[in-house]
Amino acid sequence: PEDLLNDLRPEARNEPESSIMTVINHGFGRQGLIPLWAGEGNLPTPRFICDAAVKGLEDGETFYTWQRGIPELRDALARYHARLYGTPFEAENFFVTGGGMQSIQTAIQAIAGEGDEVVLPTPAWPNYAGPLRMKGSRPVEVPMTFAPSGWQLDLDRLFDAVTERTKAIVVNTPSNPLGWVAPAEDLLAIRDFARERGLWIVSDEVYARYYFPQDEAAGPLPPSFLDICDTEERLIMTNTFSKNWAMTGWRMGWMVAPQALGDVLENLIQYNTSGTAAFMQRAGVVALDEGEDFLAEQVRQAREGRDIAYAALSSVDGARFAVPEGAFYLFFTLDGMTDSTETALRIIDEAGVGLAPGAAFGPGGEAFLRLCFLRERGQLVEAMDRLTRWLARNR
Ligand code: PLP
């Protein structure tokens, strides 16, 4: 078996074992465990969305389909974006993928090759750095600074990390795992810098609808590159049906990209998945056009969950965190904790709660734990109760 492994590309082999997988493998399926480690709620996909997929199947939508997405879904994406954002993207700017993850993978494949660098603030979702390393590109991680008043991105540090090998800057706002939302002035500065240096921006805005700012005067959506960039510039936005409409298991997402990239993205999609099932795309149309009430209910649940998690952890001596303003995670540190993976394993065994270790999210996250608070109320209250009692016993 060693020989077989040795015959693989070193980049594919050298991906370090993910500490999230260590923790999930330890606790998965365990009786009575409340898992808050994953990025999803516990509501099922709403019936009206499932019905549209069933109808698609019954109508015989079982053949190969358009690589870029069915025209009806690309039209619906254009309508959805026109409702929410300032820049007038057309149906030809949208590309349907097998999830936010495939959108990111496709963007990376289009932009970065062997020896290229991509700059990204951390702590960050690990699935940017992983695919970059697998390709022989180098993720250049720029740690943000933690303060209970909020995480800070030092723009000078971010821009100083750019070299002549840099191809792109990745920004995830609202952030998984931080709940940080990039201020409008940061996005403008990054856009201007990227324009000046000819860099791509890969903007991951999958949590854009989960926004609960402290500032009551803020609008309904967080600042977005889609409001300040042109349709035909170096911007690829990655998005997904997963989070808004409880469709994580469907594996369906989209990209917003310049039309000039159409042929290239079409090829990449063809070589990766050869398109997304047409009957699922029918459901995507319905989610975009008719899914606002369901989404509002999910956002209400997330806001309530944030308040429950916040109140519970505020009562714990030595727990510190910034109040999340977006997404559905609380990223907290414990005074004296040195190994977040070890701590997450103990919390599974001794408290019956599954958390994600901060070490998984790159530099700056090592002393943190992440919990997902998009949960049905009773289950979240029970999880927080178990967790706070464990923390009280173990401090
Ligand atoms: N981007 C971020 C920041 C995420 O947290 C996730 C999922 O957790 C995704 C993208 C991808 O979502 P999916 O592949 O389920 O569409």
From TrEMBL:
Swiss-Prot/TrEMBL cofactor(s): pyridoxal 5'-phosphate
Name under which the protein is recorded: aspartate transaminase
Catalytic reactions of this protein: L-aspartate + 2-oxoglutarate = oxaloacetate + L-glutamate
Biological process per Gene Ontology, one example term: amino acid metabolic process
Record-linked InterPro entries: Aminotransferase_I/II_large, AspAT/PAT-like, PyrdxlP-dep_Trfase, PyrdxlP-dep_Trfase_major, PyrdxlP-dep_Trfase_small
Keyword Transcription: no
Cross-referenced NCBIfam families: PRK06108.1
Domain Aminotransferase class I/classII large residues, every copy: 43-387
High-level lineage: Bacteria, Pseudomonadati, Pseudomonadota, Alphaproteobacteria, Hyphomicrobiales
Domain of life: Bacteria
GO MF: L-aspartate:2-oxoglutarate aminotransferase activity; pyridoxal phosphate binding
Organism: Kaustia mangrovi
Annotated EC: 2.6.1.1
Gene3D superfamilies associated with the record: Aspartate Aminotransferase, domain 1, Type I PLP-dependent aspartate aminotransferase-like (Major domain)
